[in-house]
Write a structure and sequence with these properties.
Layout: E1 4-13, E2 18-31, E3 43-45, H1 48-59, E4 75-81, H2 88-102, E5 114-120, H3 130-167, H4 172-177, E6 181-188, H5 191-205, E7 215-221, H6 241-247, E8 248-255, H7 260-269, H8 276-279, E9 291-295, H9 311-314, H10 322-333, H11 337-342
Parallel strand pairs: 1-5, 4-5, 4-6, 6-7, 7-8, 8-9
Antiparallel strand pairs: 1-2, 2-3
Helix pairs in contact: 3-5, 5-6
Length: about 350
């Protein structure tokens, strides 16, 4: 089975061997080894159906966790969505850092979180491209909706099989077909805006189901979205946050007030709301119960003295972000938030 997986909606120049900065048809890629920012490391898969077949085959090699008391050991199929100012090479390198830290080793190895798939959208890869990138995200959302829809339907089928298997424990054929993986999303920076738009559109497409655990864990890392996104709490008001809150078991926002990049983001938009990835939740008492935020400043080397212009990307730095990666791993495993704080993995809420 391949080690790395990528869905790209960037234009592709197959003659020069590179991805562009414009939106193109959706393409599918796998790789057995890096460096992933080298186009020649990737093999193109001809269709979505063939790509799905590979993902399903890989998922079938993951650990079988039959004991409900050990659900924290169940592995994941994770979608990684990069942020603003990421050329294809930058996005591929970031994806490899996540894979090699959280998803390394044999398919069923104890430290391997499962399978990670990169969703690569056409950021222009420059600071000056901030506003064009935001417009591009809005154009790309329907493509991400289609991918999430495919995953949603697959999980619904697996839930039906699981119900049948529970009703007939002696049926070994059904037991072998039960899903071995949870689903999760790790979104960085403006990738969270793409996630917000796509999850809302998916929620509407599926007739606005309430409290469906389609995504087990959503990690909103340095999220470039309004920090009042979840302020309507449990009330359905069609403002955008409902899609995430109702389709996700737990939403974890990682932020730092040191993030100078998101300070620029807020000033460029000047919408009047601070960024979730810089300021945390606008009012933690009003958000749905499955949403929480972590100020990661104390997890950085030197704490508040860490260089502000490096903070936005430090979350995925295996060295300076080692404590954050450790928190990500335990969040993905589903460890209770109170336990994470008690163990010193997450800072105590303010």
């Amino acid at each position: 089975m391949p080690k790395y997986y990528m869905i790209s909606i960037r234009s592709v120049d197959r003659v020069k061997g590179t991805f562009g900065t414009e939106q193109g048809p959706m393409t599918f890629w796998t790789s057995d080894a890096g460096p992933l920012n080298d186009f020649s490391s990737w093999i193109e898969i001809r269709s979505l159906d063939d790509f799905k077949t590979l993902i399903i085959a890989a998922a079938n090699q993951l650990r079988v966790v039959a004991d409900p008391a050990k659900q924290e050991d169940q592995q994941h199929v994770t979608l990684m969505i990069h942020g603003f100012n990421e050329s294809w090479q930058d996005a591929a390198a970031l994806y490899q850092s996540v894979c090699d830290t959280l998803f390394a080793g044999a398919p069923d190895a104890a430290g391997n979180m499962g399978i990670c798939v990169s969703f690569d959208w056409p950021s222009r890869g420059s600071v000056a491209g901030y506003l064009p990138d935001r417009a591009t995200v809005e154009q790309c959302a329907p493509d991400l909706v289609d991918i999430l829809d495919e995953l949603y339907e697959w999980l619904i089928d697996k839930q039906y099989v699981a119900a049948q298997a529970a009703a007939d424990p002696s049926n070994t054929t059904l037991a072998a077909q039960v899903c071995r993986a949870k689903t999760s999303i790790i979104a960085h920076s403006m990738g969270n805006y793409l996630t917000q738009l796509a999850m809302y559109k998916l929620w509407v497409r599926k007739n606005q189901p309430l409290l469906v655990s389609f995504v087990n864990q959503l990690l909103m890392v340095a999220a470039d979205v309004d920090n009042d996104l979840f302020d309507d709490g449990e009330t359905v008001t069609n403002t955008g946050g409902e899609g995430i809150a109702n389709l996700t078991y737990r939403v974890t926002a990682l932020y730092s007030g040191l993030d100078a990049v998101l300070g620029v983001s807020a000033s460029l938009k000047h919408f009047g709301k601070r960024r979730l990835g810089r300021s945390g939740l606008n009012d933690p008492t009003r958000v749905p119960d499955n949403v929480w935020a972590n100020d990661c400043t104390s997890l950085l080397p030197g704490g508040a003295n860490y260089p502000t212009w490096q903070v936005h990307g430090v979350y995925f730095n295996p060295t300076d972000g080692a404590k954050i990666f450790a928190l990500m791993r335990e969040v993905l495993r589903g460890i209770d938030r109170g336990v994470l704080v008690a163990r010193g993995l997450a800072p105590a809420p303010s």
